């Protein structure tokens, strides 16, 4: 029973694809039956191909006609196909029935591809919803009770243990911890939170237990707002899509009206007989159908998509390949996009009596017991050095860590913390530390005391600067984009101003927006779109999802990117190689050039065939050959992008 269930589910999820495949199979069998002279079998198979392949287009076309009082290409194709079939039956030229079925098959395949593209929104929302737990641990009269998030009320007190996700926005009543907010705010380092600080749903609690008071309804939490923003941004049609829709409706309306006029007026105006009039009207519907126009675009875009895939650039649909060639402004997220997203030791500065290795080894002896990302970065930097782990290690949250290593007290932490153990901090190191902090680096002081019980007798060994490493290709990428003529390049980040400007300076970006929440990034993208129309956004985090969805082209990092960023984006850089953005833009511009050439050829053929039909210089078979020939020609032209 399991196999039929899976088959039923597959058919339901891929109904358009199954319909196109069945239509194509029935079309082939019908053609083969005609070739063998089995007319009864052909007349059984071909109508089935029409119905199965054309049902969805006919339904959409008739719905648009009756509800919106508009004609669209879907209805035009059905009319052209039925007209070709009717003419084939009338004149006994049964190959025209095949031509009509081919028209329907082309649209069935197009509808299936469109259906797959529309599934992105639902997957994006499901990915976002998985960021928060289903329940929260609420305190009632001193006891903990699990309740659904939806039942939380303003004023409830909840408990979050180490390593758990924060279930809803709130204010800390008691406890101290570090929270990883990178997914929501984009901050590169975990943020220390204590009593009175606000926490956000979907952020990850560190080592401390927290008691949090709910200060707003769960439906108003930051993560829920992100979900709403993604939904809204993905349902807003860009201006180019609206233009295409208007063009399709206008084209279909003109062709249908012209076909009706051509089928009724010539006998009165030019004295044509009715058989000639209807014959030329049906020929008109066939040669005027926009198959060549459709083929002028999709094969080109699909070829470009295949080309990009070979180079590690995943285009989710052909429209984005077109749009990226028109981009005039581009916004970059910082953490995980322009930077690696992993904190590392940036610089080690030692006083004259010690070496940099001495500083790293001493710091690693106590930091090896720490779960803090800074501690892990220091231990990783000292991986190739010989050091001995400390004992009696004690961490003071938000300040530093102390321990005993080789019978000496080791002190590692911020300047205020280390000053409790040393007589003074060297002026030269103070100045270097201030300079590094102004560049957005986190500075850790390292000291040791040969006699741990002697009070403030520790010696400062040096400082360690911690930073989120800038991607090596970032600066080259920005330079290439400027050479391509991108008018505005900006950086968006939830990090502080100093860190943001430091990274921007390193990669060559002049305009920076710092300390942004997801909705702030979305606002910046909207302002850029008002000025530059086509805007790209490059990001990797959940906090980038609304901006990625709103941007004309959303570009996500394939390796470091969060699931929701990957689902929301239109283009994915599979190997996180920023320089591929310039390659994608070149592909987009080349595809635009080929599409324009193809459209010119397609329209040229249509005009020639229409004039020839009106003058009576072509018959229906020649019209079909010209129509199909132009379609094949522009299809082959589009395949040039495979090179």
Overview of this protein structure:
A 7-stranded mixed beta sheet has the order 10-22-21-20-11-18-19, with helices on both faces. Strands 2-1-3-9-4-7 form a 6-stranded antiparallel beta sheet, with no helix packed on it. The protein is built from 25 helices and 22 strands. Helix 3 (39-67) packs across helix 5. Helices cover 55% and strands 18% of the residues. It is an alpha+beta fold and 643 residues long. The mean pLDDT is 81.
In short:
With 643 residues, this protein is of the alpha+beta class.
What's the topology here?
Layout: H1 2-13, H2 15-36, H3 39-67, H4 73-91, H5 95-118, H6 120-129, E1 135-140, E2 143-148, E3 157-160, E4 170-174, E5 177-180, H7 182-185, E6 191-193, E7 198-199, E8 204-205, E9 210-213, H8 222-235, H9 239-264, H10 266-269, H11 274-288, H12 291-310, E10 313-315, H13 318-324, E11 329-333, H14 334-338, E12 339-350, H15 356-367, H16 373-381, E13 391-396, E14 400-405, E15 408-413, H17 415-418, H18 427-438, E16 442-449, E17 459-470, H19 474-483, E18 488-492, H20 497-507, E19 511-513, H21 518-532, E20 535-539, H22 545-550, E21 553-557, H23 563-568, E22 571-573, H24 580-615, H25 620-638
Parallel strand pairs: 11-18, 11-20, 18-19, 20-21, 21-22
Antiparallel strand pairs: 1-2, 1-3, 3-9, 4-7, 4-9, 5-6, 5-8, 10-22, 12-17, 13-14, 14-15, 15-16, 16-17
Helix pairs in contact: 2-3, 2-5, 3-4, 3-5, 4-5, 4-11, 6-8, 9-11, 11-24, 11-25, 12-13, 12-24, 12-25, 13-24, 15-16, 24-25
């Amino acid at each position: 029973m399991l196999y039929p269930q899976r088959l039923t589910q597959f058919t339901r999820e891929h109904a358009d694809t199954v319909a196109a495949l069945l239509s194509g199979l029935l079309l082939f069998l019908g053609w083969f039956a005609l070739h063998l002279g089995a007319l009864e079998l052909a007349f059984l198979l071909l109508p089935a191909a029409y119905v199965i392949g054309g049902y969805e287009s006919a339904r959409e076309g008739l719905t648009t006609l009756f509800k919106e009082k508009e004609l669209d290409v879907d209805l035009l194709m059905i009319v052209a196909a039925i007209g070709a079939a009717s003419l084939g039956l009338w004149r006994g030229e049964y190959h025209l029935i095949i031509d009509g079925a081919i028209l329907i098959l082309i649209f069935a395949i197009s509808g299936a591809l469109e259906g797959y593209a529309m599934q992105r929104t639902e997957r994006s929302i499901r990915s976002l919803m998985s960021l928060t737990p289903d329940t929260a641990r609420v305190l009632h009269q001193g006891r903990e009770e699990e309740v659904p998030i939806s039942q939380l009320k303003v004023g409830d007190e909840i408990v979050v243990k180490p390593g758990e996700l924060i279930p809803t926005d709130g204010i800390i009543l008691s406890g101290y911890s570090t929270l990883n907010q990178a997914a929501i705010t984009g901050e590169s380092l975990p943020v220390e939170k204590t009593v009175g600080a606000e926490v956000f749903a979907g952020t990850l609690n560190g080592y401390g237990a927290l008691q949090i008071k709910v200060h707003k309804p769960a439906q108003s939490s930051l993560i829920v707002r992100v979900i709403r923003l993604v939904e809204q941004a993905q349902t807003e049609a860009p201006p180019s899509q609206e233009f295409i829709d208007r063009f399709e409706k206008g084209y279909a309306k003109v062709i249908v009206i012209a076909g009706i006029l051509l089928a009724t007026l010539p006998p009165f105006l030019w004295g044509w007989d009715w058989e000639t009039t209807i014959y030329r009207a049906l020929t008109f519907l066939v040669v005027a159908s926009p198959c060549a126009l459709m083929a002028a675009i999709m094969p080109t875009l699909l070829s470009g998509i295949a080309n990009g895939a070979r180079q590690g650039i995943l285009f989710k649909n052909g429209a984005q390949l077109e749009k990226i060639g028109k981009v005039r402004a581009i916004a970059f997220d910082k953490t995980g996009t322009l930077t690696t997203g992993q904190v590392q030791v940036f610089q080690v500065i030692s006083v004259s009596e010690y070496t940099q290795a001495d500083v790293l080894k001493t710091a690693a002896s106590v930091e090896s017991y720490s779960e803090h990302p800074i501690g892990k970065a220091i231990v990783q930097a000292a991986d190739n050095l010989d050091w001995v782990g400390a004992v009696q290690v004690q961490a003071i949250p938000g300040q530093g860590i102390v321990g005993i290593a080789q019978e000496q007290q080791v002190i590692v932490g911020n300047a205020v913390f280390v000053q409790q153990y040393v007589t003074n901090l060297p002026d030269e190191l103070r100045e270097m530390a201030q300079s590094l902090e102004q560049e957005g680096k986190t500075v850790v002081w390292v000291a040791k005391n040969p006699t741990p019980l002697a009070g403030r007798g520790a010696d400062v060994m040096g400082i360690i600067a911690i930073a989120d490493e800038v991607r090596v290709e970032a600066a080259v990428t920005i330079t290439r984009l400027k050479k391509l003529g991108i008018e505005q390049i900006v950086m968006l980040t939830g990090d502080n101003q100093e860190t943001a400007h430091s990274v921007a300076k390193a990669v060559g970006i002049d305009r920076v927006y710092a300390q942004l929440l997801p909705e702030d990034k979305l606002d910046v993208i909207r302002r850029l779109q008002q000025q530059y129309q086509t805007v790209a956004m490059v990001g990797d985090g959940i906090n980038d999802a609304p901006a990625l969805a709103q941007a004309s082209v959303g570009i996500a990092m394939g390796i470091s990117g969060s699931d929701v960023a990957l689902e929301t984006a239109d283009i994915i850089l599979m190997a996180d190689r920023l320089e591929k953005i310039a390659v994608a833009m070149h592909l987009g511009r080349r595809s635009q050039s080929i599409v324009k050439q193809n459209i010119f050829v397609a329209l040229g053929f249509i005009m020639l065939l229409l004039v020839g039909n009106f003058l009576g210089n072509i018959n229906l078979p020649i019209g079909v050959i010209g129509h199909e020939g132009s379609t094949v020609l522009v299809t082959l032209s589009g395949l040039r992008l495979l090179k």
